[in-house]
Each structure stands twice: as structure tokens, then as C-alpha cells.
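Hey team,

Filing this mostly as a record. A colleague (T.K.) asked me to run one chain through the structure pipeline before their review meeting, and I want the input and output archived in the tracker in case anyone asks later how it was produced. No errors, nothing strange. Just documentation.

Input sequence:
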Amino acid sequence: MPDPVGAVTLLARPVLHALAGTGPGCVVLLDGPSGAGKSTLGDVLVQQWPGFGHPSLVRLDDIYPGWEGLDAAIDQLTEHVLRPRRAGRPAAWRRYDWDRGEPAEWCPVDAGHPLIVEGCGALASANVGLSDIRVWLTADDAVRRQRALDRDGEVFRSHWDQWQSDWAAYRKRETPERWATHTLAAI
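Output structure:
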């Protein structure tokens, strides 16, 4: 069985190189379709962070307010995390409780640490000027679909078409890959 973490670690080398010498204000955005490896890449970057301080990791999966919440999560990320952080104000994101189907507690983002945000929608155009390194991660459609369904099981299977439709609309509207400073193709 292939080692996805090992493969993503190799894939992460140019990003890790770009991060060397960054300061505590560094913001890294990881975007791409479901199952492309964004979460794994985020974990690898946290573990191997070469710059100053230990980064905070925000996962958009924890913010989306339900299966049709892609655009709402993008707005929350921009308005409550990235803009305040860039302006030197306190930043926080609101966790969505998937089991209860409702918003939960607010989670502060430590301005004294670098920040990594991973998830579908991270590279929305509103976030470009609020970030330093932007990664677009791609993978074969069949592979990423299988990864996503293996990860999230039957729950995601019943929502796959809706999520893909919302994702396609976001991608058509925003063309997020054009903002990437690094484009990586997952195996």
C-alpha cells in the first residue's frame, strides 16, 4: 500500500523551501478539490515547519456550515480570520458541529504564530492579498473521489454531487489556481 504521507512529504519540498526564514505573520493557504491531499499536506507542513515558530492549522472542514456551506466558510475565513489578522486585530473562526448541525464555539487564532489554512475555498480572490504562500493541490479525479469517500464514508457519498457542484461553481467564479504560488500534483 502506498504511503500518502511520504508522497506528500516529497511533494511539499518546494513549499517547505519557500517557508524557510518566514516570520510569525506568515499565512499559507492550501486549496484544491476534495481528496487531493490538502489535509495531509497541512499536517506535513506543521510537522516540518522550517520557519519561525510553530504554525497554527485551521481546517475549513471544521468551518463549513453543512454540506452547502462552501461560500459561507470562505466568507468566515476572510472576515473573521485573515482580514483581522492582517490588520493586527484578534482573529477567530467558528467551529461547525456536524453532529448537531449547528454552529459551535469560536476558536481563536494566535497572531504570534504562522498560520496554515487548508480546505476547498482557501484561495478565494479575497484572500490573495491576505496570504503569503498559496498552494493549489491537484489529483486525478477518480483517485481523489475514492480518497474522499474512504475518509468520510457513506456520509460524504450522499453529498458528493452537491459538493462537486458547489466546488465547480466556486472554481468557475474564482479560478483559484491562478493565485497559487505553488501548484502540486498529488499522486
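Quick notes for T.K.: Helices lie at 4-11, 13-19, 38-47, 70-86, 141-157, 160-174. The mean pLDDT is 89.
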